[in-house]
Write a structure and sequence with these properties.
Length: 392
């Protein structure tokens, strides 16, 4: 009889379990402050759902022996997007959901063998908002959630941001037949293969320059503007960083923009990001996320609501960074922060944070209202009992 757990699965002691509970509880409280509601997606799903329309490789999915093709979820976004577009389709948008639970992924050993990796995740999904206001709320929430974890200074968190639109922009001068290969070379930072490719010299030189372009968002965006002029994706990223710059600075989070950064799962079509901390031996990714409109569309959402953004925290990795977690206070009130057409959303997000700091739930109305009466009418729709109206 083998007395060791299977490779990759978690066999936690009581102290580790308690820390996991405390971390998920603290994150859940922040999600609730922002007006997110808890859901519980199934651990077992049909393979076609788990593959997210081809965005997730079937080799990453742990398959089960059953009469129909089933597997264990490698992440929770696809399952929640399915539920949001079917069972929860009649709920008003924006639809704010959060969940925590275990995910399973197949990994390959150095000897080319396979094992199952088990991880505990906690994260949020925001559906039905196609504009930049969704990214602004999501990243603001991410930083607030990270702040409640009380990471130590030595962990030096960095928010790494990319955008699939930037990669599309970079590849515009590359022939169609070479785009996938060139894209992988950029993602892998394979400078040698890129320099030895069959691309024209001026194209290779430009790509090598972009491959080395990462760091301060302002500097990177200025350089991209000089290379590609004032493209929409560059303007959008400028707008997003304007919202989170001050918050990230106050929380001592470094911001880094990498035009060639792309995540492992081919799930995202828009902004992508990772929250990375300094570990004892190597960097540790404690959170990741992005925009996934195409997935929501494939799940059957109506065209005007086929939009989704989200992130997930890796609880086990955070626990391994920390030795102590404290509880947070209870929440007891829900305030809707709404604003007139000429008021920027940044002011509403700032006001919402003020309510959070006092221990109250606060939701930002992502679209401006014509008048106070319209905002009041939204209170029961948003599940709020108090209005904070901004008109001047």
């Amino acid at each position: 009889m083998t007395l060791q757990p299977a490779a990759g699965v978690r066999d936690l002691n009581p102290q580790q379990v308690e820390i996991n509970h405390m971390l998920t509880k603290r994150l859940a409280q922040i999600y609730r402050f922002w007006g997110y509601e808890e859901v519980s997606p199934p651990r077992i799903e049909r393979i076609d759902t788990l593959k997210a329309g081809g965005a997730i490789d079937s080799n990453d999915i742990v398959r089960l022996v059953a009469d129909e093709p089933l597997g264990l979820r490698p992440e929770m976004t696809a399952s929640i997007a399915r539920a949001a577009s079917t069972r929860l389709a009649q709920k008003p948008r924006p639809l704010r959901l959060w969940a925590s639970g275990t995910v399973f992924e197949t990994k390959e050993t150095d000897e080319r063998g396979l094992f199952i990796e088990e991880n505990l995740q906690s994260g949020v999904e925001l559906f039905g908002v196609q504009g930049m206001s969704a990214e602004k709320e999501l990243l603001s929430l991410l930083l607030d959630a990270m702040n409640t974890l009380d990471l130590e200074t030595i962990h030096r968190p960095t928010l790494l941001v990319g955008h699939t639109g930037l990669m599309d922009l970079i590849l515009t001068s590359v022939p169609n037949s070479e785009r996938e290969r060139t894209k992988q070379q950029l993602i892998d930072y394979d400078k040698l293969s890129l320099e030895n490719s069959n691309l024209e010299s001026f194209v290779k030189n430009k790509l090598v320059k972009i491959q080395n372009l990462r760091g301060s968002p302002t500097d990177v965006l200025d350089e991209l503007t000089s290379l590609f002029n004032d493209q929409k994706v560059i303007t959008e990223l400028h707008s997003i960083f304007q919202v989170i710059n001050d918050v990230s600075r106050s929380q001592e989070v470094s911001l880094q923009l990498d035009p060639t950064f792309q995540p492992h799962f081919n799930l995202y079509t828009g902004i992508v990001f990772q929250l990375i901390c300094k570990g004892q031996a190597s960097p540790v990714v404690i959170a990741r996320g992005g925009r996934y409109d195409e997935l929501v569309s494939r799940c059957g959402a109506e065209e005007q609501y086929a939009a989704g953004v989200g992130f997930s925290f890796a609880i086990d990795k955070i626990r391994e960074l920390k030795s102590r977690v404290e509880t947070t206070s209870n929440i007891n009130r829900c305030v809707l922060v709404a604003y007139k057409n000429d008021i920027p959303i940044e002011r509403a997000i700032y006001k919402s944070r003020q309510w959070h700091s006092k221990g109250f739930v606060s939701i930002v109305e992502l679209d401006p209202c014509t008048c106070r009466s319209d905002a009041i009418a939204l209170l029961p729709v948003r599940g709020c009992n108090e209005l904070d109206w901004i008109e001047n």
